[in-house]
Design goal:
The complex is a heterodimer. Helix content of chain A is 37%, strand content 26%. By secondary structure, chain A is α/β, with parallel strands linked by helices. Chain A has two domains: 162 residues, Rossmann fold, CATH 3.40.50.300; 75 residues, no CATH class. In chain A, the strands form two sheets. A six-stranded mixed β-sheet of chain A has the order 6-7-8-3-9-10, sandwiched between helices. In chain A, helix 3 crosses helix 5, helix 3 runs parallel beside helix 6 and helix 5 crosses helix 6. In chain A, 43% of the residues are buried. Chain B is mainly α. Chain B has one domain. Chain B has 16 helices and four strands. The chains are: A alpha/beta, B mainly alpha. Chains A and B meet through helix 2, helix 3, helix 4 and helix 6 of A and helix 9, helix 10 and helix 11 of B.
Chain lengths: 246, 411
């Protein structure tokens, strides 16, 4: 199977601090992957580089079957290529209704004039209703997103990501601030999403990663320390030394 | 799903249009030209100008209230629109006068003599005898009308492209718009910029070709034109902010980064709204200055744009009718208080003279609105309409997602 995203030899220095140091990373078109690492390991910078928020000093980020370089694109272009990002804190548009939030995220032309010409159709309304049902917000579509509880906002944001129909989903600490039941729901959802797309979960909660039951990449000081199944990496002496031992 | 017509989805648009129609009719019936004469022509002109300011406020609300850019340069576009129409008004009017004067000569004037005569008449005051390049189209009404849209639109497009592309945001963008406005005003103040320096353009109330129409009738015509234009652009603006486009620009206002990650080209959206607003503002200016009669660079000093922002803030940001209400109420109050007709307040030991104290009162009310009523006057209407968002805080009380929340349940 060919790689969907191929990151090779990227480095990024902020004011002399090497946030990313010769990092390489590959993910297949259908795969669930967990990225773990202590604070400052470069997890967020890695996501920033893939989504176009930060440019690496050196290295290559290649995407899709044609190995298109993502480095010359901006965030919006990369998002349109099919890379969705879930932030750690739920970021939904609080002043707008759940339905509006979902409608905005629906896969459609994104240019200003295309958006101006866009009209809600029966199909788009049905899709919004489906998405709302999928994330358990069917009864709340006409409420403003700002009125939702923290957990519901997280789910709304996941619904918005689904609406975008991304081919690669980057998820930043999805379990943070969730109850045990919500975590289980989230785990199930992530596994289901990974059935037909690539999902990268950045997390430092070991129990949560164990539940995902997938390949794990351990980052440390901006580069890959170990890669493999969770059991494999937890037996790695380097990993025990820098991360698990403490 | 059956789609309701746009007007039914936004009943406020109908209300605004109805109020505007009633207002226009009332003023017409009270005017000297078409009615009882209870309203002097000068008052009709003030009301017509106020409608133009309300239109500028609608554009400001698009840019600030919906898109989130506090532009402190909107009135530059307003004045530019005025200058563009003023060029034709002044040129055509002077041409008529010069032609009449030269007709007394024994030999009929050549076109060149006529041109020189016009140039002398307009630019003698700044000591210039050549028609500046920027007046090349001044002889043609249709060309100048196109420039009313093209010049401010192009300026906004270029400025916006440079500013938005480098992702200048917030206060820095406000300062940048203000700097642009100040630079433009200072340039126009110079005699050799070709716009008659600080003299500006004058005599704009005389419309060439309509010499036998009295100012009393003209003032009502302009009131109609201003009301019609305000109504037209109000509907356009309301349509713009109602659909998905409105959703996206409000999202850009609230969280630009998140919109980028949804795949929307944020800069493109900003550019479209900013340019469109500049052109709407320019149309408002082109209708305002023939009613004012005179325009000079002082009109576009940044303070004018700051006033515009104050009106929108007091009226209510993010509500189009709020912008209209704010502009109408505050600018009319402003002319009443500064016109010397407001009765002074006699305090023991001090007399509050409103001509001096009005600006203090305006500044105070701006601070108070910002602190205590961020939704402005429009907030009152929201409350009546039950639009105010319920105060929901705390955790869900039950496992069901529709369950009441802690504080809500207590209330």
């Amino acid at each position: 199977m060919s790689a969907l995203l191929e990151v090779s030899g990227i480095s990024k220095t902020f004011d002399g601090f090497k946030a990313i140091n010769n990092l390489s990373f590959t993910i297949n078109a259908v795969e669930l992957r967990a990225v773990i690492g202590p604070n400052g390991a470069g997890k967020t910078t890695f996501m920033d580089i893939v989504t176009g928020k930060t440019r690496p000093d050196v290295g290559e980020v290649r995407w899709g079957a044609t190995s298109k370089s993502l480095l010359k694109m901006n965030e919006a272009q990369i998002a349109r290529e099919g890379i969705g990002r879930k932030f750690q804190r739920p970021t939904v548009f609080e002043d707008q209704t759940v339905a509006d939030n979902l409608t905005m995220a629906l896969k459609a032309a994104r240019g200003p004039f295309a958006v101006l010409a866009w009209r809600a159709s029966a199909a788009s309304a049905r899709r919004v209703a489906e998405l709302a049902a999928e994330v358990g917000l069917s009864d709340h579509t006409h409420r403003k997103a700002g009125e939702l509880s923290h957990g519901q906002k997280q789910w709304l944001e996941i619904g918005m990501l689904l609406a975008q129909e991304p081919r690669l989903l980057l998820v930043d600490e999805p379990a943070a601030g969730m109850t045990l039941a919500e975590r289980e729901q989230t785990t199930a959802l992530l596994c289901r999403l990974a059935e037909n797309r690539a999902v990268v979960v950045v997390e430092h909660d070991m129990d949560f990663v164990r539940r995902l039951n997938c390949k794990v990449t351990v980052l440390h000081q901006g580069s890959v320390l170990a890669e493999g199944s969770l059991d494999h990496v937890t037996r790695n002496p380097d990993v025990i030394d820098v991360y698990l031992g403490r | 799903m059956t789609r309701k017509p746009f007007i039914l989805q936004n009943p406020s648009v109908l209300i605004v249009l109805a109020v505007l129609a009633v207002f226009t009719l009332a003023v017409t019936l009270l005017s000297q030209a078409y009615g009882t004469g209870a309203l002097p022509t000068s008052t009709v002109k003030v009301l017509g100008k106020t409608l133009c300011l309300a239109l500028a406020a609608v554009a400001m609300d698009l840019v600030w209230g919906y898109l989130g850019i506090l532009s402190l340069g909107q009135m530059a576009f307003f004045a530019l629109g005025g200058y563009m129409i003023g060029q034709w008004l002044m040129y055509a009017r002077t041409e008529v006068i010069v032609a009449e004067a030269l007709a007394q000569n024994p030999i009929p004037p050549t076109p060149q003599e006529l041109r020189d005569g016009v140039t002398n008449q307009i630019f003698g005051v700044v000591g210039s005898a050549d028609l500046p390049l920027v007046w090349s189209f001044a002889h043609s009404l249709s060309l100048q009308l196109m420039l009313v849209l093209a010049v401010p639109g192009l300026l906004a497009l270029v400025f916006g492209w440079l500013a938005f592309r480098s992702r200048v945001n917030g206060v820095y963008l406000s300062i940048l718009t203000q700097a642009m406005t100040l630079a433009l005003a200072l340039w126009l103040f110079q005699n050799d910029s070709g716009f008659r320096g600080n003299n500006g353009l004058s005599g704009l109330q005389n419309i060439p070709g309509l010499d036998d129409v009295s100012q009393a009738r003209l003032s009502v015509w302009f009131l109609w034109a201003s009301a019609g234009t305000l109504g037209l652009f109000y509907v356009l603006a309301a349509w713009l902010v109602s659909g998905k486009f409105g959703s996206v620009i409000r999202a850009i206002r609230d969280d630009e980064t998140r919109v980028r990650f949804l795949g929307y080209p944020v800069e493109g959206f900003k550019l479209v709204v900013f340019t469109l607003a500049a052109m709407i503002t320019a149309v408002a200016g082109a209708l305002y200055y023939p009613q004012a009669g005179i325009i000079n660079p002082a009109e576009m000093m940044p303070i004018a744009s700051i006033y515009l922002a104050v009106w929108v803030a007091i009226g209510g940001r993010g509500r189009l009718y709020g912008a209209v209400i704010g502009a109408v109420v505050v600018s009319l109050l402003s002319s009443w208080f500064t016109g010397g007709r407001a009765p002074s307040v006699h305090l023991p030991g001090y007399v509050v003279n409103w001509v001096d104290w009005w600006q203090v009162a305006l500044g105070l009310s701006f601070v108070l609105v910002t602190l205590f009523a961020p939704k402005g006057i429009a907030g009152i209407f929201d409350r009546i309409g039950g639009l105010a968002r319920p105060r929901r805080h705390g955790r869900d009380l039950g496992p069901d997602q529709g369950a009441l929340q802690e504080r809500e349940a207590k209330a």
